Protein: Kelch-like protein 17
Amino acid sequence: MMLLFMLVSIFRAAFSNEWANKKDGKFILNKPNISPQVLKIILRFIYCAKIDLTELQGPEILNLLIAVDELNVQTLIQCIREYLIKHQCDFLQQNAIEIFETAYQNEAFTDIWNYCFDKICEKPAVLLDKFINLKEPLLELLLKRDDLLLDEVVVWDNLIKWSFARHPSIQQNVKKWNKEEITIMRRTLHKFNPLIRFYHITSEDFILKVDPFKALLPEDIIDNLLAFHMNSNKELNIDLHPPRMPKYDSNIINGSYFAILSSWIEKKNHFYYNERNIPYNFNLLYRASRDGDTHTDFHIKCDKKGATMVVIKIKDSEQIVGGYNPLDWNSSNLWVSAKDSFLFSFTEKNNLQSAKVGYSNNNKYSIGFFSDHGVVFGTDLYFYEGNWHSYRDDTHSYPKIGIPGKIFEVDDFEIFQVVKK
Structure:
């Protein structure tokens, strides 16, 4: 009965559209986008109820999904969708843009569409090389997203490139445009202007990247932007959207690091969280270059503030180290155990894969609270008399993770209050 039902569904799809031509009393189906190999897989499933997706590569599975959707083999559609998302993540991420466009407005691809959309927003580097080729409806959907992890000036810059790609005959020297060219470009950008969060573009980038194209923007937007950048405290009657990228007040690390640190706080793997779903706020309490680098300055700024994250940039190096204290800093002159505290190291600043973490062994020297010291993580990492020290004796509260031994110099260090959202 199931076999008959599937065959009826396929023939109904095949003979109800332009695929079928009748010649010499026979119906000839013309489907050049369905290869013989894919058709063989589908027919084998229909007659034998067997399919082994593990034998297929990502592109073959995607082509199979397109075919079973067109042939209306409903029992296979959900199975293939789930397999792609669960077992072909790398293929989907590496080809997110192409799949994104293929899946557009196709109900059979909804899960895959959402998956690729999320991945593009999470890791938009895959987008930038292909931005100028995006279809207008897809670009509009993308720019409406709050979680597209790109600086707004990068979004604007690529939108301008996209507009030029639509009209290759228009020269890129704005000053030489005639009225017709200005009108064409204004019409091209018209629907996208409200989607650009101009107020999250810095004054410097506004002058360099936005102002040269002011002829393409409504006068009220330009007037408000100029007023905003001349006096950012002035109240303006504007609809101010939140920034796409969370902003972190750090001169040492960015959101990718905070995502990893958040994962470690919860004892997850390095990349459990990403910039879109960080569950903590990291509020800057102290920056040595700004607030002074003495133990007194530290205690004034950081005592009794709850859990904190210490981030240190080592001098003449790409290494970043630090630690997490889940307790209040104070000046009680006591040692305490803290099983959730940890030290960390990024050997190379621009290589997140170089990350290492070492959790406390929960001995009584995990954290030190001393009035004449700053940060103290056992004898493994501590600040004393204006210097950073590590591994000063054989009593260790944390595993060794590559923090320089003895005394080391730093460019700067920062301490953040960690608050659950």
Summary: The chain is about 40% helix and 15% strand. The mean pLDDT is 87.
